[in-house]
């Protein structure tokens, strides 16, 4: 199991390196496919993956990535409103075939998976994005690793306090803050190394990278717990089996889903302040 998890993890990292460094259509298609798989995994929890509301969510996901390709994200609000009205039309015109839970689960699938994951591509294609986009990974996976190490260390010498006893008994408050500190340090070091490549963040990009990683590290924990909460509510262990040893797209990218939009908007904020 460990070898399988390690090997699939290495392959995943290599794929991320290739697609993110390449950017453009390669990353767009990759994120689009991952989004479709993630939407499918989410809809399967509600048994909607092959039903009309689910097909509407797939169509909206494809539409989103078409907007990204055409660089017409000014039409995003129109797309979201149109998608919602379409789902409500399906709900009332087929009533009582689909209930309200099916309607809102399909809408959530698009927002929660497709839209949030698209911010990886959006940040990569933004000014300075070739280097900024890695802060998402550093913040989410880095904070998780630092939190685990801190939690284990504190457990050996101190009495730790559970952060979410029901959702994730192994997560501790001490580990959470250790993860934020670790993410901040990693962001600072990264910013110092590539400061000249991230001048869009202002005169002190290293400081901005540290702030960004701390905020993204914090919200990534919520993303992890949110995915766990949904699984617990519906009695499932993993969302899928796409990544051997890791589960599905939502199992591996649950923290990145929340970190990506936060990283994008923090970067945009500092970019416009300069």
Can you walk through the features of this model?
The protein has ten helices and two strands. With 274 residues, it is mostly helical.
Distance between the termini: 49 Å
Coarse structural class = mainly alpha
Tally of DSSP β-strands: 2
Spell out the helices and strands N to C. HHHHHHHEEHHH
Shape category: globular
Identify low-pLDDT runs: none
Q: How are the strands of the largest sheet arranged?
A: 1-2
Strand content: under 5%
Provide tags for this entry:
274 residues; mainly alpha; two-stranded antiparallel sheet; 10 helices
Give the SSE map.
Blueprint: H1 2-22, H2 24-45, H3 52-70, H4 76-93, H5 100-125, H6 129-132, H7 134-157, E1 162-164, E2 168-172, H8 173-193, H9 205-234, H10 249-273
Antiparallel strand pairs: 1-2
Helix pairs in contact: 2-3, 2-5, 3-4, 3-5, 4-5, 5-10, 7-8, 7-9, 7-10, 8-9, 9-10
Q: TL;DR of this structure?
A:
This protein is mainly α and 274 residues long. It is built from ten helices and two strands. Helix 3 runs antiparallel to helix 4, helix 4 (76-93) packs antiparallel against helix 5 (100-125) and helix 5 packs across helix 10 (249-273).
């Amino acid at each position: 199991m460990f070898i399988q998890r390690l090997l699939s993890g290495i392959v995943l990292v290599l794929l991320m390196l290739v697609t993110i460094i390449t950017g453009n259509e390669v990353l767009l298609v990759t994120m689009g496919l991952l989004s479709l798989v993630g939407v499918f995994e989410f809809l399967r929890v509600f048994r909607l993956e092959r039903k009309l509301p689910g097909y509407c969510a797939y169509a909206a996901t494809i539409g989103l990535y078409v907007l990204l390709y055409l660089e017409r994200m000014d039409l995003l609000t129109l797309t979201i409103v149109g998608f919602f009205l379409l789902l409500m039309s399906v709900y009332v015109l087929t009533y009582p075939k689909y209930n309200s839970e099916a309607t809102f689960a399909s809408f959530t699938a698009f927002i929660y998976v497709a839209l949030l994951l698209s911010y990886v591509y959006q940040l990569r294609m933004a000014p300075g994005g070739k280097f900024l986009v890695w802060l998402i990974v550093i913040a989410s996976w880095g904070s998780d690793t630092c939190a685990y190490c801190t939690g284990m260390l504190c457990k050996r010498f101190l009495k730790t306090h559970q952060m979410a006893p029901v959702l994730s008994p192994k997560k501790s408050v001490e580990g959470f803050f250790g993860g934020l500190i670790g993410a901040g340090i990693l962001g600072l070091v990264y910013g110092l190394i590539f400061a000249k490549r991230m001048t869009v963040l202002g005169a002190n990009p290293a400081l901005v990278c540290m702030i960004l990683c701390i905020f993204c590290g914090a919200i990534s924990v919520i993303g992890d717990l949110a995915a766990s909460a949904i699984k617990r509510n519906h009695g499932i262990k993993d969302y899928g089996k796409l990544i051997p040893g890791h589960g599905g797209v939502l199992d591996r990218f649950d923290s990145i889903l929340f970190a990506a939009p936060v990283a994008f908007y923090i970067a945009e904020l500092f970019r416009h302040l300069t």
